[in-house]
Structure formats: structure tokens, C-alpha cells
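Example 3.2
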Amino acid sequence: LAAYLYPPFLEYAPAFCLGVLLVLMGAFNLRGNIASIHWYNRRKVTQKDQKPYCRLVGAGTVIIGVGTCCFGVLQSIFQVEWVAYIEAVSIVIGLIFLCFAQFKYNKGLF
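Structure, written as C-alpha cells:
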């Protein structure tokens, strides 16, 4: 328990918790459940395209969540600038997945 209360970890614990939340939401979408996606982001998605749309959105969310978890843990351990680049790359890759899903299945962002 003392290792988890290590002061640098407490500083980056919110990032780690946010990452866990994003991973859980992404896993929820990866299973094909469309309920957590806002209605205006999925209103043009057909019934047969819901599963692939959810999988792409879920994959993007999981990628961002894993990057955020890694950022929280690695930054609390190493305290260096390069860890932020891991977070930035994961956000960009995750957003590419999300935008691709939106444009392919929803015919636009909204």
C-alpha cells in the first residue's frame, strides 16, 4: 500500500484513473454496445453497421485510455518529458480511429 501512496504517484493518479475509465468505456463499446455513444454521433449509423462502428470507436477509446494509464504510471516513476509524447501519440492514434469511424459509418462528424 505504501508504494501506491508514493507522492509522485498521487500526483498522477487522476491521469491513471481517467485512463482506466477510458479503457472500461472502450471495452464496453468493443463488445458492440452503442448506448454510451451520444445519439448525434450515431444517428446516421445503420443497424448493420452498429457493430463495426462500435468496435472502431471502442478501439480508439481503449488506445487513448491505455496511453493515459501509461502516462500516469511512467510519469510518476521517471518524471521525464518523453512520457508526455507517449500520451500525445496515443491520443492522436485514438482520434484517428474515432474520426475514421465517424466519417465511414456516420457520414461526417455529426
